[in-house]
Amino acid sequence: MTMTLGAQLYTVRNYVKTEADIRFTLKKIAEMGYTTVQASALGPIAPERLREICDELSLKIVLTHIPPDRLLGETEQVIREHDVLGCDYVGIGSMPDKYRTAEWYSHFAEDFREPAKKLAAAGKLFMYHNHNFEFEKIGGKRLIERLAEDFAADEMGFTLDTYWVHAGGADVVQWIEQLADRLPCVHLKDMAVQGSTQLMAPVLEGNMNFHAIMQALEKAGSTKYLLIEQDTCQGSPFDSLQTSYTNLAALGYK
Which terminus in the chain has less CB density within 10 A, N or C? Predict the structure, then answer.
């Protein structure tokens, strides 16, 4: 399966707050060489207008992050909006705080299974994006393990975030192998250090073993989109996106 590079717009969230800024930012991203994007942290813009701008720039919207409350309370509207966007992967950026305890975790599956089933019936897939807290054990089991057990593969995919897996003290390659058939989209970012401080870095500019990570994704065979995300950048977020693209393009990914 061909894996296509994309830009996670959360990286440039300060530059996508108005329609004019969204268009200018997307143009810069297209000029870098990206052909796909994840729509996240955008200011007010109609789905029809966002699709029109992306079509003009030959950019495909492949994944979103939406507020969890919208997925729960406005499922049909969310599906219609994603139909307009031409986007099949509907994501949330994190598990809401109230579910992250032994007392309340079981309610996550109870609450989100029905919206997930509605998405699946509409030809879309609910996508869960991890941070590091999912690797904490609650009741003897990691939250990410419980998520994989509580949702079937056709109900939930994982937007595995390489940096946050590593920050959770886990092996990225192991988790790619463990979730091999559930990773249509992944978030790529590297980890560097400054003294004892961990820093997010462009891909192949830090210390993570990205050659092994890319080989594992190739072997797993389920990943369609390699989405570059850098929550915090040491300089310009546009430079960070360009560096990651250039480094991955040198390995043959585009």
Answer: N
